[in-house]
Structures are given as structure tokens and as C-alpha cells.
Amino acid sequence: MRHRCRQIALRLWFVAVLALALTFGVAPARAGDPQGQLTWGVHVTLAPTWFDPAETAGLITPYMVLYALHDAMAKPMPGQPLAPSLAESWSASEDALTYEFVLRQGVKFHNGDPVTAEDVKFSFERYRGASRKLLHDRVAAVETPDATHIRFKLKQPWPDFLTFYVSATGAGWIVPKKYVQQVGEDGFKKAPVGAGPYKFVSFTPGGALVLEAFEGYWRKVPNVRRLVLRSIPDESTRLAALKRGEVDIVYSIRGELAEEMQRTKGLTLKPAVIIGMYWLYFPDQWDAKSPWHDQRVRRAATLAIDYATINQAITLGHSRVTGSIIPDSFDFYWAPPRPAYHPAKARALLAEAGYPNGFDAGEYNCDAAYADLGEAVLNNLQEVGIRAKLRPLERAAFFKGYAEKSLKNLVQGQSGAFGNAATRLEAFVANGGAYVYGSYSDIDALFREQATELDHARREAMLHKIQQLVHERTIYAPLWQQAFLNGIGPRVKESGLGLIPSYAYSGPYEDLTLADK
Amino acid sequence: MTQYIVRRLGYSLVSLFLLSLTIFLFVRVTGDPAVLLVEPGASQADLDAIREQFGLDQPIWIQYVSFIASLAHGDFGQSFYYRTPVFELYLTRLPNSLMLALAAMAFSLLIGIPSGILAAVRVGGFWDKAGKIFALLGLSVPSFWIGLVLILFFSVYLQWLPSSGSGTPLHLLMPAFALGWYFAAAHMRLTRSSMLEVLGSEYIKLARLKGLPEALVIAKHAFKNALIPVLTLAGINLVIMINVAVVVETVFAWPGIGRLLYEGITFRDFPVVQGVVIMGGAMIVIVNLVIDVLYAVIDPRIRLEA
């Protein structure tokens, strides 16, 4: 009897210890389990719309959350501009009217529901972000023959379908249909469920987003247990938080603060060259009375700019001077010769064009947030005799004026829109583009032709030719492909910054690691 | 009295109507929010879709009528950036702003009132001069500079306090000081001038002639009367601290209403800017209304003159 009592007591003791261990997590962590926490000091305020791929408005910033919470059919990944993700493969029919995707087997959402073709169809139909109209107008039907196959039927051949579906919009990021219908649109933003490497834990508006590793993620189990994205809008405060170890990674530190970060022991500057392009545009080049009508004057302007020094001063030399208005990571990109700084040649060209003493070039319009770049370029132009007045405009007013074609003389333009070379040329070069003040008939003809060309090689040749003409005619003076300067603290081993080509933020999150203690 | 209150209420409603009209028009002349909600270079179709979604493609008078109609039902609209009702956003941030404003107010009164009294009592002396320098610095040094200096000193150099964010009493210290600094100077100046006025009045002279101890004269007779305008100002200042601590809340990443307003302005989030300004305006109007009514209750001459 005594022996039996002891047995019972021993069992109770064992159960109690086990319960305590499970409750308070004192069980030893298995090797490979996610561990630790990484905290970011984010430069913008996080919005709940970023938790929902359907709301992706063509801005790059929401992707810092989408890459954690959700997964896409295909997405840019390290070394691959379009890596199969939820879709393990896809194919297009010969007439380019049907695209078929095959889903990866066994992939689950955070709530345990499997990712099915119905979810893909639902996510596409529910999508209401950037290029929604374009996508919905051109797709005739979405068919789901079985749980792992999805077929997109187009109304007419559209060579850019993949670009828009899986890379330039959030339409190819998949949400769980059953869950969204169960909790409703607002409920989904408050407690999002996705198929990404991290699960939603909590969100404090204006404060922080907390995420926890999803151990069932198909690609790999994330290394870091918890991610915290803290919104710290002030640049100096972000740097202070990094110095103090309150955060491990900070986004967007520029100029002198970036230099200070570089000097601080234990901190590392980590630049990421993004798809944000900056250029100088000559909107008066189609006006025969303007000095800018003469290509020699435009060419002189490109030779007057000291690209390397400006790059060093503002982005510590990390931006990329490519000579193009199209990001070098875009499909159909053509690499022009690198622009050179040659003020003597610039003066000679101006004299040849009839302006030996230079000329008054009017206004240099720019987004006030990038007036530092404008000032530097303006000083260079001034040195060769092109005298202009800086006109920094508040961002909304600048883009309103740019799009309404009301800006004159010189415009410092910029774009970070997704897409490929064709979509950039459409907005900034071809006739009718949102920011096009004038165009050239041969370029317009080529542009129209490429839009219906289904042969990739032939289309590429046409788009290369257009970019070559843009360069030869000096329609633009491209300034740089911007480097986004970030900082990392000593606790971080792999920050994910720069792993995905042209992507500004950390990613893929499941690859991030903490430094060994 | 009833007539007086009704008239004051009428003035308040007219003020709020004018405020709503002004802010509605002013935010719309600052630019198109659609261009800030997409990347530069986005297609015209995307810009048009955003304008349509938020009703910005409608004529301005239709937008105003719809805004007023919603406002009448207590609906401030939905934020363009957050896609959440503005009132809900406001209420989420309100506790943080209240906490910060109350701490900053406590600091400003604790510093401002004693230093103001001291300056008035020792007029022309060391404390008065020191008070003047304090007032000058308080009113002229911008709060973002104070904030950054505090962060560099207490967070980065001494490592005593967290640089930003919220959640613990330690997070509150620096923002409360940075916000309260300006108001402490304002309260100090008003306390000083109010005390000087009271100290020069006949009943104070009488109290002194009666041989009352100076401390009693100051504390019991002068201070109580000098405090009325200071507390009136403090009431208005509290509303300002709650609603427009834009710079301090941004520097310290404090998730309050001031930062919400900053985000609204940055993204041309019209409903947010309108909502915050109207809520702030309504609070000021209500505080003023209550003060007017209280004055009328205390002083019959006011209601008779009215």
C-alpha cells in the first residue's frame, strides 16, 4: 500500500513537472528551433492595410510585411528575380492566352488550412490594389480544374501578364478564402492569417508589429523566433535606438547620420540599391524656341554633372550611376554607356550650340525631399554656365505638377514603380504616358509594336532599341539608381538586406540569423 | 442666464462650422493624396482608381456636403492610409496622448508656477532674472531640438532612458519634459505677471498693513487669485498638448494623436487631418464654453453685460 502511494506520488510529481515545463517553456529547445528576437526601427508608420495583399497600392513599403506574413505564387528571392513559391511551376499556352500554375503540395496557412487553387482564385478576384483594373480587364476567367491547378484565361495575348500578376502587384499573394470569409475584411486586417514564414501576434497602431516564426513554413523553419517592427519616423531617433541596442536593424539613414553610423563601433552600414531611379528631364526639348531643343545643350547638361562626387556626398557612394531611367534589375533592361563627368566638353558643346556664355535655364523643379540632390546637380550645371533656380516643391504638389505637365524648364524626376522596362517606358517615354511632355514618332511606333509582340527575344530587341534611342537623343539625363542606406547592430548575423535584388528591406525573413553569443 | 448660455452655445457651433469649412478647404489646396499613395510613375488608371475609391473625383461641394452629413452622424470618414475609421484611430491614440499631456502639464505647472511666484516676489532680483532667462529659452528653443538633445544625453550617452516608443513610465520622461518645457515657460510668465498684478492690489496692501506674515499674504491671499488665469490657460494648453504635440510625438515615436496628425499631413490623409483638427477644435470650444459659463456664474456683471 505504501509502495503504491509512493508510485502515485511519483507519477503526480512527474505530471506536475511536465505541466510546468510545458506551461513555462523550460523544456530545452531543439536544435534548429527558432530562437531569439530581432527588432527593426522602421522609417515609416505601419498600416493595417499592409497586412492584406489585396490592398497593395503599388508602393514598395508594404512588402516589408507581406514577405513575413504572406507568400506569393512566385516572388523575387535571392538570386532569382522570380522564384517559384506557392506555385512550384507555371506554363503559358502557345497562343499566350492561357497561363497555368501548379501549386506546391502540402503548403498550409498559419491556421492549418491547406493552400488550394480556390484560395488563389479568391485572392485574385478579391485584389483591389495597384493595376487592379488592368488585370481584371485583361483576364477573361480564372479556372480551378483541381485543388492544385489554376488556369488564367486572357482576353487577348498579354506579354506582361506574369510581370503584373506575380511581380508588380499583390494579386499573386495568397490569402485563405475560408478564413477571410469567416472573419470579414476588417477582421482580416486585425488578425491576418497567411502562408508566410511568420505569424501575426499583435499590432499597436503607431507602435510595433510583433510576429512569430511559423514552424510549418514550406521553404524552411525560420531561424529567429520573434520579429518586432517598430515604427520610428525620426532618422536621428532611429540611429539613437540602434546605438543603444533597442533595435537591431534600422532603415533609411542618410547623409551625415549615415557617416556617423559608419564611424560607430559595432554598427554596420548596409546599403541596398533599389528600383528607385532619379533623373533630370528636359520638358522643353520639344519647344523649338527653347535652348533645350538643341540636343547639344542636353548633352552638355549630362556632361556637366559630377555623378561620383554627388553620389559620395549624399549616399556615401552606394547609389548606382547607370545612365538609365530603368532599374538594371528590370526585365528588358538595356545598359547604356556609363555617364561621364566632363565639364570642359560640356562648355564646348554649349559654345557650339550658340551659348558660349551659358544661358538662363529657368527653374529646376524637384520633390523637396530630394532637394539636396537637386542643389548638387544645379551647382554643377551652374559651373558650365547653365543657370537655373532651384524650385523644391512639396511631394504631392511636385507630382501633381509633373503629371499635369505644368512644370517647365528642368524637372528632377523619380520613380520606384514596379514593372519592367516596358512599363517604365510607357509612363515616361511613350506618347500618352502619365509623365510624358512630348515624344518621338519612331519611338512611339516601336513601343506600340512591342506591346503585342509575343516572342520574348524580338520584344527584347525592340525595347532595347527604344532605350538606345532615349539615350542617343538625350531625352533624359539619368542621375542614379538610388541606394537605400540601412544600419545593422552587433546582434545580427544575417540581416537579409541586399539578399533580394533591388529590394530595400530585410528578406527573406526565414533566412535571417542572430550572431552567436 | 439661459439666454447667455444659449448664445454662447450658438457662437460655439458657428465656430465649429467655420473650422470644419476652413480645414476642409485648406487640406485640399495642399495637393493630391492619390500621388502619395502610389509610387511615382504609377499609371493614370491607378491614380484614377484611388481618386474614385476615396471620392476625390467628385466636385468639391459634393465632397463637403458628404463630409458634413457624415460628421452630423459622428462619422469622421475613413483614413486613406490606414483604411480605418478616423474616430477609431483617434480613440486608439487618445490614451497615449492623454498620458503624455497630463505628465507634461504636471511638469509645466510644477516648474512654471513656483518659478513664476518666486520671480514676482523677488522682482528685479536674481530669481526674477533667472526666470526671465528660463522663459526666454523655454519659448524660443524648439522642442525637436530639446528632444534630440535629451535622446543623445540620456539615451545614447548615459544609457539611462529608452530613446523612443511607449510602454513604461521611463518612456514617458523625456517626451513629457520636451513637451512641457515650452508650456512651463508660458505658465511661468503668466504666473509672474498675474502675481505682480495681484500683489499690487489694495487688499494685499491691507493684508500687509494688518501685519500678516508675508508668506501668508502670498500663499493665501495673492496666490489663490493669481492662479485663476494660469489655470484657464492650462486648460486650453492641455487640449493643445493632447492634439498637436506633433513634433515631440514624432521625435520620440510616441504613438499619440500628434503623430497621427503628422502622418495625416504627410500622406495628405484628408479625413485624418480633418478629424484631428475638428476634435481638437471641439475640445477648445467646449473648454472655452465651460469657462465662459463659469465666469458668468461667478461674476454677475458678465452675464448682465452680455
Radius of gyration of chain A: 27 Å
Number of helices of chain A: 16
What's the helix-strand series of chain B? HHHHHHHHHHHHH
Sheet of most strands of chain B = none
Please bin the fraction of helical residues of chain B. over 70%
Instruction: Round the mean pLDDT of chain A to the nearest integer and report it.
Output: 90
Structural class from helices and strands of chain A? alpha+beta
Task: Tell me the greatest interface.
Answer: A-B, 52 and 49 residues
Strand order of the largest sheet of chain A: 10-11-12-1-13-18-14-17-15-16
- Report the mean per-residue pLDDT of chain B as an integer: 87
Low-confidence runs of chain A (pLDDT<50, min 5 residues)? 20-28
Oligomer: heterodimer
| Content-based structural category of chain B | mainly alpha
**Number of E strands of chain B:** 0
Helix content of chain A: 25-40%
What's the alpha carbon Rg of chain B, rounded to whole Å? 24 Å
Beta-strand share of residues of chain A: 15-25%
**Distance N terminus to C terminus of chain A?**
52 Å
List low-confidence stretches of chain B: none
Tell me what the structure shows.
The complex is a heterodimer of chains A (517) and B (306). Chain A is an alpha+beta fold. Chain A has 16 helices and 20 strands. In chain A, helix 9 runs antiparallel to helix 11 and helix 15 (441-451) packs antiparallel against helix 16. The two termini of chain A are 52 Å apart. In chain A, 50% of the residues are buried. With 306 residues, chain B is mostly helical. Chain B has helices at 2-28, 44-53, 60-72, 86-121, 126-140, 143-157, 169-199, 202-209, 214-243, 246-251, 257-266, 270-298, 300-305. The longest helix of chain B has 36 residues, at 86-121. Chain B is flat and about 85 Å long. The termini of chain B are close together. At the A-B interface, helix 4, helix 7, helix 13, strand 17 and helix 14 of A face helix 2, helix 4, helix 6 and helix 11 of B.
